[in-house]
Structure formats: structure tokens, C-alpha cells
Amino acid sequence: QSALTQPASVSGSPGQSITISCTGTSSDVGGYNYVSWYQQHPGKAPKLMIYDVSKRPSGVSNRFSGSKSGNTASLTISGLQAEDEADYYCCSYAGSSTWVFGGGTKLTVL
Amino acid sequence: QLQLQESGPGLVKPSETLSLTCTVSGGSISSSTYYWGWIRQPPGKGMEWIGSIYQSGSTYYNPSLKSRVTISVDTSKNQFSLKLSSVTAADTAVYYCARHATTVATDWFDPWGQGTLVTVSS
User: Fold this and answer.
1) DSSP code for B57
2) How far, CA to CA in Å, does A73 sit from each of A23, A29, A48, A53?
3) CA distances from B80 to A77, A79, B17, B87 (A)
4) Residue-wise pLDDT tens for chain A (110 aa)?
5) Using CB atoms and an 8 Å cut-off, which of residues 65-94 of chain B contact chain A?
6) Which end of chain A has the least Cβ crowding within 10 Å, N or C?
7) Residue A54: which residues within 8 A CB-CB, separation 6 or more?
């Protein structure tokens, strides 16, 4: 069970759109529609942003969206805002009642 | 509003057992159909799922930690706990507890506690 692969960092200017990828295998990301995404500001608890690949919890901005293609899931943030600057983590069900997280991506808003 | 709070020693000696408790407020562990999970984050690194427990005591563990991990639940106190034995410096991390929704229809962790830093050092 290896960690999901995320880019270490991504950046974008206010108003732009960015996409963070999360690559796994057919045993986790590719095998189930149970990918979730978490936002974590420094020193804060992670916050659920997307679940079940593309569902958005109540209260989360519709600027956040999720998708999946094969073994890679993606989080897209449109209309980038300064408050979006944070670390983002993906998580996937990996079968046999186990779960695996990604290494995290630091989003910088330029 | 459901809230979770981790508590326990911030410093543990190598080879000893790390023990943490998560107290749930604003809702009852025993009146829900959720699991309750532990996740950790070593300094500067990604997150690692440790394990999850149901109100009945049914548990799921990360295979890489299974031999050292015990998660238990105390519904009378609305708490669940983590024990990690034979710790080394590699177990130094911020430990989070979270509500874990896992059914055939959905899967997510939310909300999370604020986290507690546990350092393994002599």
C-alpha cells in the first residue's frame, strides 16, 4: 500500500484555475469512486472539500470540483483566491477496508 | 456541531507505548452509523491513515501498523483511543482523530480534531 502521488507544489494567480492531480493504481483510485480531498491551512485541522470523487459538502465553494480518469483523480479550483493558499491532500479507499492518502500539494497563490 | 479533540502525552520514549484519546462532543458515538478514525502526519510529510473503529468495537487497521496498533472505543465517555506500541522516532507526528463515513454509498473523513503533536525521544 503506497501513498498516492501528488505534485509537491502548484501555483496560480488570483482569478486563474489550477488543477492538482492524485495518481494511484487500479487497486485504489482506479478501482473505486471513493476519492476525497482535504484542505489544510498551516497549523489547522484538515477540512473536507470533495468526497466520492466529485461531490461537494455543504458550505464548500462551488469553485472547487473533483474528477477522475483511470488511476488519476484531480481537484480543480477555479477563480483562485488568496484564501485558497493551503496544502491539499487526496485520499482513496484502497480495498480490504484500508485507506491511503497522498503526499500533499502546496498551493501558492501568486 | 460535532467536534473532536485529541489528548495525551506530547512526549513518548522510544520502545514505549503511545496513548491518545479522542473526545467527541456535539454528538454521540453510539447513536451514529459512522466509524471513528486516527490519521497521522509526520513533520513536513503527508498523511497516513492509522485505523478506524465502529461503536461496536469493530476495527480496521493500516496493514503496515497493524502489529503495533490498538484502537478502542468507550461509548459511555463518548471517546475512542489509540495505542501504538514499540514507538521509534519515525512515529513522531501530529496525530488527528476524525469521524469516518464509510459505506457502500460514500466515504470521507470529517470533521477532524485539531491534532496533537507526539514526539518520540529519550
Assistant:
1) S
2) 6, 7, 16, 7
3) 35, 40, 16, 20
4) 789 999 999 999 999 999 999 999 999 999 999 999 999 999 899 999 999 999 999 999 999 999 999 999 999 999 999 999 999 999 999 999 999 999 999 999 99
5) none
6) C
7) A65, A66, A67, A68
